[in-house]
Amino acid sequence: MKLNSDQIAEILPHRYPFALVDRIENCTPGVEATGIKCVSVNEQFFCGHFPQEHVMPGVLILEALAQVGAVAILTVPEDKGKLVLFGGVKNARFKRKVVPGDVLRLHCELTKRRGPVGIGTCTAEVDGQIACTAELTFAVQ
């Protein structure tokens, strides 16, 4: 399944400036999703991070990964309309800077779920190079 920004907005509650996924290229509900974030110099966070050298904050890369994972969860019929919250971040590693002009490819595979709590294994890449890896824990409300 592919989703554009309007369709993502029907699933996720995030809005500007916190909607960090431009499109979903592939989604298998309850299993995995892959999304795209086109990083623009016009992003609000670049005003302060950093004025002399624009670098996308690592926490926002993690948030973008979580939003892609939330799409994978919330496209499952029984989870439609629910809210997905962060439960934790484990083993986050940042391998390269993400800067204006980069196209961030975000992938989250849901590896474990017990009731409302689960884990996703996530990777963010730019031009085939790993920018970030992490294990995200989520809670569905």
What does this structure look like?
This protein has 141 residues and is of the alpha+beta class. A hairpin with a 3-residue loop joins strand 1 and strand 2. It has a six-stranded antiparallel β-sheet with strand order 1-2-4-5-6-3, covered by helices on one side. It has two helices and six strands. The chain has a single domain, classed as Hotdog Thioesterase (Thiol Ester Dehydrase, Chain A). The mean pLDDT is 97. The longest helix is centred in the middle third of the chain and has 17 residues.
Which structural class do the helices and strands define?
alpha+beta
| Residues in helices, as a percent range | 10-25%
The profile of the biggest β sheet is:
6 strands, antiparallel
As for the number of domains, it is 1
CATH class: Alpha Beta
List the uncertain runs: none
How are the secondary structure elements laid out?
Blueprint: H1 5-11, E1 23-28, E2 32-38, H2 58-74, E3 84-94, E4 103-114, E5 117-126, E6 129-140
Antiparallel strand pairs: 1-2, 2-4, 3-6, 4-5, 5-6
Can you tag this structure with a few keywords?
141 residues; alpha+beta
In brief:
This protein has helices spanning 5-11, 58-74; strands at residues 23-28, 32-38, 84-94, 103-114, 117-126, 129-140. With 141 residues, the chain is an alpha+beta fold. The protein has a single domain, classed as Thiol Ester Dehydrase, Chain A, CATH 3.10.129.10.
